Amino acid sequence: MIPKMFLPRRRQFAVWSETWIAPETRLQNILKDLRANGEIVRLGGDYERWDLEVSRGIFGASRLLMAVEDQGAGTQYVRFRCWPKFSLLGISLALLFGVLAVGAGLDRVLLACAILGSLAGVSGLLTFRACAASMSALLRVVKQAGLGGS
User: Fold this and answer.
1) Where are the domains of the chain?
2) I need a surface site. Which of 56, 70, 90, 116 has the fewest CB within 10 A?
3) Helices 23-36 and 110-144: crossing angle, nearest 10°?
4) Is 91 in contact with 8 (CB distance < 8 Å)?
């Protein structure tokens, strides 16, 4: 079965929770579930603008930021923001091979143009796929935890 993939784009969603859970515990549960699924996850530091990062190697990752608002009487409003982190290496390789392919095409060296163009496409595709896969893993775990997201 092929897992559902999400486009690697910024997403934000919120959920109302009738049960109070400490924000750290909520984040640790998401972290635990991601690691149980075999994902490479790292936590953001005190000065980072994100809480979790799901990495898919050198080509891309996705980040999650969570905010919890206590509403009284043990209820919470939990907000999430997720976004892809496209690899500078992947984008640079795609651009470099693309520019070289255009140069080879202008010089009418068609074999070099085709090879370089293919390398540009593969680099771009690997970067896109890494971000899409990490975003899918992140959203799937949040959804499984009953916290929304689609």
Assistant:
1) 11-144
2) 70
3) 130
4) no
